[in-house]
Amino acid sequence: RFLVHEDTPDKLVGASHYPPPRVLTKEQKRFQAMPLAEAQRLELHASSLHSPEDVRNRSLAFKQATYLSRVVMHDLGLRRWDTSEPYMTLLFVAATFFLRVYIHYLGQYAFLAACGIPVTGFTIRPHTVDIIYQPDLLPTLVELVMTFIGTLFNLALFLCFFTVGLLMKRIMGRLPLHASRFLIVCGLMDLLDPYLILIVDAATQNWAGDAFKLYNHYLAAEGGGASGVVLYVLVDVFLLLLTVALVYLYLLTLHMNGCLPDIYRRLHDDENSFFVPHDMEVSILEIRSICEKAERWRGEFGERRKTNITQYERRDPFDPAFREVTIHVAIVTLY
C-alpha cells in the first residue's frame, strides 16, 4: 500500500488538473459532517447493481433498465438540453442520415458502372436518389448484388470510420467524446439503412426500389415473386447480423474508450467481484509522476520540495511468515 502525504496547499501541487468540487445539498453536507470513517462511507455505495436483495425483491431488472437508460442518454448526450451536447447529437443524426442515403446510391451507381451496365438517369434528391437503368435483362446475381450493394457500401464506410477511430486512440491515447457519438450514430444508421430506404420508397411509391427489385425480377422471369421475397429476407437478415456484429465490436472496443465492459460488469457481476480500495490508493505510475513533479518544483522565493520515503514493516510474533509492508511517501517544502 502507498500512503501519500503532502504538507503544502493543494493549489501548489497542481490541483487545477482536477475538476472543481461539485455543489452539495444540505443533506449531503450534513452527511459529510458526520464522524464516519472512510470505510463506513464507502459501504453506503455499491459498484454493482446485482445484489441478492434486488434478486429476492425482483427489482433487479428495473434497476438495470434504469441504469442502462441513463448510460444511453449520457452516451448520446441527451441528458442535459441546456448544453450544446444534445444539439451536436442531433446534428450527427441529420448528417449521417443524408450521408447514408448518398453513399447507398453511390455504391449502386459504382456497381453498375463497374459491370458496364448503362445508366440512363441519375437524379439526386434530398431524401433519395433516382437511378434509372434496364433491369429486365440482368442476371439474377447482378440484381441480387444491386439490391444490397448500397448497404455494403455504408458498412464499408463505417468500418473506415472505425479504423480511423482506432488510429486516433492509438496516437492520442483516447477517442474524443464527439467522435464516439458520431460513430455510434453512424452505426445505428447503418442498422436502419435498408428499412429507411424501404420507408422512403413506399412513401414515394417507388415500386422499383431495393426491397422490390428481387420481387419484380422473379415476377418477370418466373411469373411469381415469392422466391424473390424469400431471398431478399434471407440476405437482409444476414446483412443485419453482420452490421450488428460490427457495431457490437465497436461498442466493445472503442465506444467511449471501452466503457461497455465496465457497464456489463456492473449490470451482471456481484459486489464481491469489484475491488475498491479503502485508503485512497493510487497507482505506482501516479506516485512516480507526483514525486518527479515535486523534485522539479521551485517556489517564488527559492523554495524546493523533497520527497521522503519511509518503509514500515509489520510482523506477527505468533506467525513468522506474516509480513505487511507499508510505504509512506511524504512531500515536504524546504524554505
Question: Summary?
Answer:
The chain is α+β, with helices and mostly antiparallel strands and 335 residues long. The chain contains twelve helices and five strands.
Polypeptide structure, described:
This protein has 335 residues and is of the alpha+beta class. The strands form two sheets. The chain has a three-stranded mixed β-sheet. The N terminus is likely disordered.
What is the β-strand count?
Answer: 5
Q: What do the pLDDT scores average to?
A: 81
Q: What is the helix fraction of residues, given as a range?
A: 55-70%
Distance between the termini: 30 Å
- Assign an overall shape: elongated
The helix/strand series, from N terminus to C terminus, equals EHHHHHHEEHHHHHHEE
Task: Kindly list the characteristics that best describe this protein.
335 residues, alpha+beta, three-stranded mixed β-sheet, two-stranded antiparallel ribbon, 5 strands, 58% helix, 13% strand, elongated, disordered N terminus
Detail the topology: elements first, then pairings.
Layout: E1 2-6, H1 10-13, H2 26-33, H3 38-43, H4 52-57, H5 60-75, H6 85-115, E2 121-124, E3 129-132, H7 140-172, H8 177-203, H9 210-222, H10 226-253, H11 260-268, H12 284-296, E4 304-316, E5 319-334
Parallel strand pairs: 1-5
Antiparallel strand pairs: 2-3, 4-5
Helix pairs in contact: 6-7, 6-8, 7-8, 7-9, 7-10, 8-10, 9-10
